[in-house]
Amino acid sequence: MTDELLEVDHLTMTFAGGAGEVRAVDDVSLRVRAGECVGVVGESGSGKSMLARTLLQLLPPVDVLRCEGSIRLEGRELLGSDYRSVRTDGLSMVFQEPLSYLNPTMRIGQQIAEGLPNDVANRDRVSAVRAALAQVELPASLEIERRYPHELSGGMRQRAMIALALATRPRVLIADEPTTALDVTVQAQLLRTLYELHRRKQMGLVIITHDLGIVANMCDRVYVMYAGQIVEEAETLTLFDAPQHPYTKALLDCRPGHTDRREVNERLRGPVPDLSALDGACRFRNRCEFAATECATEPSLDRIGEAHAARCGVLPFVGLGVKWGGSRS
Ligand SMILES: Nc1ncnc2c1ncn2[C@@H]1O[C@H](COP(=O)(O)OP(=O)(O)OP(=O)(O)O)[C@@H](O)[C@H]1O
Ligand SMILES: [Mg+2]
User: Lowest mean pLDDT: which of 22-26, 272-276, 300-304?
Assistant: First the structure.
């Protein structure tokens, strides 16, 4: 018996890009346990949304060529040979832009009612919808269930989408930059609601974000993505304390207010690699200050501690980390 809810192994999603095949998600393995909050970080275009959408089998209209690997939820395999026809109940997602997800022509209450499990009897559906809204702190007095999405403020709309995502009683909720479009105060309130809900329900929560402050405050563990791959995974404290991959280190140094920011931006100059024209070398090589001859070969994701792994061929020589072995201070 394991408390791991979501077990993703070697997930690879390949689509036909204009210039050739693109592996937008490349050999990604991750775990989410009951009651655990996991962060996925990486700069724009690193594949965070593609990963989330591959897990939910909710891909944008790209021409998917292959979807390989394994996605197990509570031991049940979700990935079949025809990934679009496989059910993903138990997994749910909230998006950055609720208007693209909510149906503009349906009242919020109707939309939530449609998401409720079949075992909720008809006579209980109205109160189940109200309860779904109340749990995201939209009180009954607001009568949100009677409103259409465009009649709500940004923060309320985001809460309504979370209520909708939770109506199916997911075991793991994936939130893809759920608060990026909101102002700072509303962001903080919404994140607190999400966090409390996941703790109370012992649900797995995956937060995809650019904001390392959110990661530091909420996440137990973090996966760092670069060019479709996981380049580092660690417990949050370890990642902030002793990042091992040069890319992680650069991201951490880019935190607002960091004194070395200009220097780091300088270091991270250069484009992210074109995923349709990879040359078999380390994908971070052109932007890495430690690039060496070893980097002509793509490194594997190597364990460097019990809960710590990094994908860097020169790491042992660079000795970037202050501490080894993923120790917590
Ligand atoms: N609809 C699409 N059609 C074709 N390519 C796409 C599409 N959406 C994303 N991509 C490509 O897939 C790769 C991963 O993009 P993805 O949107 O997952 O990045 P991301 O990490 O979520 O970025 P952001 O932080 O900006 O949301 C990029 O190379 C991107 O150009
Ligand atoms: Mg995205």
Answer: 272-276
